[in-house]
Design goal:
alpha+beta; twelve-stranded mixed beta sheet; 23 strands; 16% strand; globular
């Protein structure tokens, strides 16, 4: 927009004082003329004045009418003038950009990349951290509750509480309108060929009152259907699931749908976009008591049992009463939790007393990502927002440099226009308008790029999030609009500041080369900014790539790339154990016979998914020798060969290790060293669970494995025969090639063996390990992409500055050549200038990265945030880029014909 004259004109619209003065002058003129005519007709002057006043009537009213008419006319004229100037500036900007399509395309693409990166990251962070759940009522008073207590000397914060705790909190608190329970699970929904594992939410009846939502069809379930000890099996379908599986038909109401182990009656459909308090739209929403009832078959104890069964664990949401402060509400919650904890101590005497546990409640925002258990992915995502902003800053500096070069090339034209009467402010606002037009075009390109690349980022950052309407929603568009305005002002600032100090008379006399040295300082400064910010991003990319490589190189003690985990979901709690064991045997034999399968075995727990810990005792290590919380694994013969865990000494579990035979155990190397340091573990006695139980003989020592965290020490594990322990577990299958490629065929081959609505779940073992590396992979990928983008933009900026500098100095270079300078001297001089600029930028960027290392360090894996090799590598990359970007214009300068350059000047 023509900002400065436009504001001036708007302030002038309705200039009351000027208009009233003009009306007074006009009335005074007509009054005097009338008096003169009357005097000329023979009246005395005083009589003529009275007669004139009589003829004019109410002068004040006439004055107001005339002033109003004049104001309306002047306002209309000035507004038309303002719009005309605006249209002229727009046409001038578009015409100027059309004359140089290459320049325009380069600028728009540069801005589009920067704005697109920021639009994408804002959309993700907005969904993750800022935006409250859809339909949430009074979001400022709604909190997610976390339960903290001291365990083994340190405070631990728990996300979930058991069902009895929910009822205690509802009963014992006073500062809350609503306390509701909610938990999201992945359950099998449907039957036969239509069964699929999808997201299901279990919520308490109070949950609905947190939201201002009405069912799209039918109704929500009420308190009478979410009660204990009996519960109703009713379900509210998610809107998307209703549309995709029932065609959006009203006939879905009343139908039966198999969810998990039971059939549920469909009583309603949630409104479009309803996700509860989670980030994804569920397939169905069922009473939380139904989940508790499915797990706890003891009907009499369902409502009061406080042991932490898996399905019994739910998240709690609360809404404070009007007028209740956060401090008072949290104190009320903590008081209720302490009383509930005392009830639990009475129920389970082995628990730590309240004085030692020090239970308290933490009320956090309803967005889970803003709570204490958000994970490194959220931290990395927040860092990536800053990275995207750096990319935009580099793009702005680059474009400002290009606009400055363009303005320098047009100095003589500008001077001529000023000489012809165009105001300086009008010229400046045209420059600013150019920047705004480019910024708006950049937003259009950026949103298009964000739309195209958004799917990849959504799958990488938040694979389980529902993205209704994509990334470019109203909030993102509003932010992009503000960014466009800011970018337009920023990229227009450099040319404007240069124009403000321009001596137009000197420009007319000296030609286009005047002021080159003075303006080059601005261009070099912006180039230094680009290089420094690029160095920061490249250091981040190097650190995350090194961390990811080290995480991938960590020895796990097994080969996840060629192992599938097969788990059966019978969906029928009444199947006898003997039948389950027989089914597991059939699945095992069938898996071994499949083409492309090398081996198959059984295992009880899955690494990084769950574990069973027990205390172990070794008599030979001394009286009372004990290691607490050792992981228990139950396996079948061929397990170690199947998963790729090496046996270091002795043997593994074999066919003769069956029920009734001598109990045997294989221990991990670290456990053997802990129990029998410096001695052989084979043949030793291990007592499991208590020091009074019979001995289990150690028959083998296996290599250490990582089962909980890549950052932790190897797990202490002992392996029992699954036949001697009468366990079940799942099946592990070793494939000849990559496990992920064989998962579908293995699942199709095993599914026919399952009865009724049961189904088989097959997943590569890499899926369980991937979560430990996801934040590192995310950081490595995004920092590398943004760093490469920033390096590309900065190198283009360096090339453009050097090319323009060579063009401006063609006379100087020609004189140097004419005086005997050799081509290599010219190349050395030009390249040296570019290299000096990049060295300064690199030094500043590496210093900034060094200062930021303390905040990045916790996100890395076995990598120093100040790794000298990475810092040195970034410096080398930037120097090489500087050499290449400077060499092209330098070689061109060395080939200039000095006589032709001098004649042209």
């Amino acid at each position: 927009m023509t900002l400065i004259p436009g504001i001036h004109r708007l302030l002038r619209l309705g200039g009351v004082r000027d208009i009233e003065s003009a009306v007074d002058d006009e009335l005074r003129f007509h009054m005097e003329m009338t008096i003169r005519e009357l005097v000329a007709g023979g009246m005395r002057e005083d009589e003529a004045r009275r007669e004139a006043e009589r003829r004019f009537g109410d002068v004040e009213a006439a004055r107001e009418r005339m002033a109003a008419l004049d104001r309306e006319r002047v306002n209309s004229e000035r507004l038309a003038e303002w719009w005309s100037a605006l249209g002229q500036d727009l046409r001038y900007a578009v015409r100027g950009l059309r004359l140089k399509p290459g320049f325009t395309l380069g600028v728009v693409l540069t801005l589009g990349l920067g704005i697109g990166a920021n639009a994408t990251m804002f959309g993700i962070v907005d969904r993750l951290l800022l935006r409250p759940p859809a339909y949430l009522r009074h979001s400022g008073r709604v909190s997610r509750l976390y339960f903290a207590r001291v365990v083994d000397g340190s405070e631990r914060v728990f996300t979930y509480a058991n069902f009895a705790r929910l009822r205690d909190m509802q009963r014992l608190t006073r500062e809350f309108d609503v306390i509701a329970g909610a938990r999201e699970f992945t359950l099998a929904v449907g039957a036969g060929e239509f069964v699929a594992e999808v997201r299901v939410q279990g919520v308490s009846a109070e949950f609905w009152s947190l939201f201002d939502a009405r069912p799209a069809l039918g109704r929500f379930f009420g308190a009478d259907e979410d009660s204990m000890p009996e519960t109703a099996h009713v379900a509210v379908l998610g809107y998307g699931y209703w549309r995709s599986h029932f065609g959006g038909s009203p006939g879905a109401l009343g139908q039966q749908l198999r969810i998990g182990r039971n059939d549920y009656t469909i009583v309603g459909v949630a409104p479009h976009g309803f996700q509860g308090a989670e980030l994804s739209e569920p397939a169905a929403i069922i009473p939380v008591t139904a989940l508790v009832a499915d797990e706890m078959l003891d009907v009499a104890r369902r409502a009061t049992y406080r042991t932490s069964y898996w399905y019994n664990m739910i998240g709690l949401l609360s809404r404070r009463r009007v007028g209740a402060t956060e401090e008072r509400a949290e104190a009320d919650l903590t008081s209720a939790f302490r009383r509930s904890y005392e009830y639990q101590v009475e129920e389970q005497p082995g628990m730590a007393p309240r004085a030692l546990a020090r239970p308290r409640v933490v009320a956090a925002p309803v967005q889970f990502a803003r709570g204490p258990h958000h994970g490194n992915e959220v931290n990395v995502t927040v860092w990536l927002v800053g990275v995207a902003a750096i990319v935009l800053a580099i793009a702005c500096a680059n474009v400002a440099n290009l606009l400055l070069v363009r303005a320098l090339a047009r100095r003589r034209e500008v001077a001529v226009r000023v000489a012809l009467g165009v105001s300086r402010w009008r010229l400046l606002t045209q420059v600013l308008f150019d920047g705004l037009v480019l910024a708006v075009l950049g937003v259009v390109i950026g949103l298009a790029l964000s739309r195209v690349g958004g799917g990849v980022l959504r799958a990488t950052l938040l694979p389980g999030v529902s993205w209704e309407g994509g990334l470019a929603d109203a909030r993102t568009l509003a932010v992009c609009t503000l960014v466009a305005l800011g970018v337009g002002v920023v990229i227009g600032t450099a040319p404007i500041l240069d124009a403000l100090r321009l001596d137009f008379g000197t420009s007319l006399r000296a030609g286009v080369r005047e002021g080159t040295c003075r303006s080059s300082l601005s261009r070099i400064a912006m180039l230094v900014v680009q290089g420094a910010l690029s160095a920061v991003l490249l250091v981040g990319a190097g650190l995350f790539v090194a961390s990811l490589r080290r995480a991938q190189a960590v020895p796990l003690g097994y080969d996840p790339n060629r192992v599938l985990y097969v788990e059966t979901e019978l969906r029928d709690a009444s199947v006898p154990d003997a039948e389950r064991d027989a089914l597991q045997g059939r699945l095992l034999e069938r898996a071994r016979s499949l083409p492309g399968v090398e081996r198959a075995a059984q295992m009880l727990t899955v690494p990084f998914q769950g574990n069973w810990v027990q205390d172990v005792f070794a008599d030979e290590a001394g009286p009372g020798a004990r290691v607490a919380a050792v992981e228990r694994q139950e396996v079948s013969p061929e397990y170690f060969g199947t998963v790729g865990t090496r046996l270091l000494r002795g043997r593994g579990i074999e066919d003769q290790d069956r029920s009734g035979g001598p109990p045997v155990v294989v221990v991990s190397q670290s456990l053997a060293r802990r129990l029998w340091p410096g001695r052989e573990a084979l043949g030793r006695c291990l007592r499991i669970g208590a020091d009074t139980v019979p001995c289990t003989t150690v028959v083998g020592v296996a290599e250490d494995t990582k089962t909980r965290s890549l950052r932790a020490d190897p797990a202490l594990v002992f392996y029992l025969s699954i036949a001697q322990s009468e366990g079940s577990g799942g099946v592990v299958v070793r494939t000849e090639g990559p496990a992920a490629a064989a998962a579908g065929s293995v699942q199709r081959a095993l599914q026919p063996l399952l009865p009724g609505s049961a189904y088989v779940r097959v997943a590569p073992l890499t899926d369980f390990v991937a979560g430990e590396r996801s934040s590192l992979a995310l950081g490595a990928t995004m920092f590398t992409v943004f760093g490469a983008l920033a390096l590309l933009v900065a190198s283009v900026g360096l090339y453009s500055v050097m090319s323009y500098g060579v063009a401006q100095r063609s006379q100087e270079l020609a004189v140097r050549t004419a005086l005997g300078a050799r081509p290599r001297d010219v190349v050395r001089m030009v390249v040296g200038e570019g290299l000096r600029t990049v060295l300064v930028a690199t030094g500043l960027g590496l210093a900034a990265a060094w200062l930021a290392a303390r905040w990045v360090g916790p996100l890395l894996f076995q990598t120093s945030p100040r790794d000298p090799v990475i810092y040195g590598g970034v410096a080398v990359v930037l120097v090489v880029v500087a050499l290449v970007a400077s060499a092209i214009p330098a070689v061109r300068a060395s080939r200039v014909d000095p006589m032709a350059a001098l004649r042209a000047e």
